[in-house]
Every structure is written in structure tokens, then in C-alpha cells.
Design brief:
37% of the residues lie in helices and 21% in strands. It is an alpha/beta fold. It has one domain: Rossmann fold.
Length: 194
Amino acid sequence: MGNTWLVVGLGNPGPGYSRNRHNIGYMVVEELASRLGATFKTHKARALVAEARLGIGGPKLILAKPGTFMNLAGGPTAALAKFFDVPPDHVVAIHDEIDIPFDTVKLKLGGSEGGHNGLRDMSRALGTKDYYRVRAGVGRPPGRSDAASHVLKDFSSTENKDLPFLIGAAADAAEQLIIDGLVSAQQKFHGAGG
């Protein structure tokens, strides 16, 4: 099972949240499943799971959408990691990031959760911060607006025009991270700006 990766899209379940900025993680794993011809099925770990291979003979991907609310995503993530025997260094969290401009994707291994409750719960449940993150930029709210309410709102009509590109770029970044490693993916997606 050495080349199995658990790719967790963070979001909140239910139709009321489906187009929220906070649900970009769900959108990206749905894109990956669509590309790879995989179908989500209910898993006992309180998650929807789709299994696929990344290319012929390539790494096995376990694509997951936790069925809990974002701040409780750690339980399903840890249960899936245990079930599929995936170590933390083969776990990828895909999530919204307010500290990155909309339409930008960045990658990192470990480090701070930056106030993101879904990541904080994953770190607690996995017992480490050393898992990969694909950070899809949703930007900060204008003025002094509240960050929490910003991420729980749907993307704006202007953002929706470019949203497929952001979803596609984050899916590309996850694939490249898994195939070529973090440094290669960072060089491609971070560009000259870092």
C-alpha cells in the first residue's frame, strides 16, 4: 500500500453549503473523481469516498469528502487513513485559504493551520501537522468584513466565471504533488512570486 494517497477535500455537507467558498475542497475532489472516472460511495468512516488510479500503474488515490461539518473533519480523515493504511505523509488536504488571493493555488507540507478549523481538527486527529495541503485561494473579505462569514458565502458572480479555472488548477496541483513531489509542484504553481 506504499503508493496509496488519501486526498481529503474539506467542506461542509448539504446543499446549502455546496457553492460556499469554504467548500472549494469538496469541489476539487469532485473534479479529480470526474477526471479519473471514479464514483463517490458512502464509507463507514462518515465520508463519501471514491477510489481511482492516477494513470496506468500510477498511485492509488482515495478521494474523500468528510460527511461531518468542517470543524470535525479530523475524525473521518483519521478513520480513512487507518482503514486504507495511509501514513500522514501520504495525506493531502485540499482547502480554502483566505490569506491567498482568489484564483491562486499554493502547496505546503505541515506548518500552521492559519486559524482553519478543518485543518486544526485534522492535525489533532492525525496526531501531526505533517501532511500536505493544497491551498485554494479565496481571498480576504473586503474592508472589515468577518472572515468566517466570508468563507460561508457563495462565490461572487465575478468569481464564478473563473471558479472552474481555480478548481482545475487545484486538481492539477494535487496530481502533480502526488506524481512529482512537493518541490516540483511548488515550482509550477507558486511561480516567481513564491
